[in-house]
Design brief:
Distance between the termini: 86 Å
Structural class: alpha+beta
Number of strands: 8
Order of helices and strands: HEEEEHEEEEH
Radius of gyration: 27 Å
Helix content: 25-40%
Shape: rod-shaped
């Protein structure tokens, strides 16, 4: 009798990824499913909650809110004061100005360089 093959085990309902036959009708559960962690006290796997486990996971990126999207998944919303969202990032307003200035300088440098090359020929 093999509970893993017969489906009479409870590993999957406790969020384990596998059942391992231990002989003589016995089994043990393997590792936790992806984005779950072992809870030894309850002999089960519980979902990973990044927003709760690391309260600074979004504030470190200048966002205000951390939103739970499912086991192990989250996204950040709402930029902190003084920041605006650009391409999924919260960017400081002074940094945005610097980046724009840098792009302008880069474009001017490229244009000036091509003019010089044409003038040298």
């Amino acid at each position: 009798m093999n509970p893993c093959e017969e489906g009479t085990h409870d590993c999957y309902s406790r969020n384990f990824a596998s059942c391992v036959f231990a002989g003589d009708g016995q089994f043990r559960c393997g590792d936790c499913q992806t984005n779950y962690k072992i809870n030894a006290e309850a002999s089960t796997c519980t979902e990973i909650l990044p927003c709760e486990e690391d309260p600074n996971i979004c504030t470190d990126k200048n966002f205000i809110d951390c939103v739970h999207d499912g086991p192990g998944d989250y996204h950040c919303e709402n930029c902190a004061d003084g920041f605006s969202e650009e391409k999924g990032l919260c960017v400081g307003k002074s940094l945005t100005v610097f980046m724009m200035a840098q792009e302008t300088i880069t474009v001017k440098t490229v244009l000036m360089g091509s003019v010089k090359r044409k003038g040298c020929v």
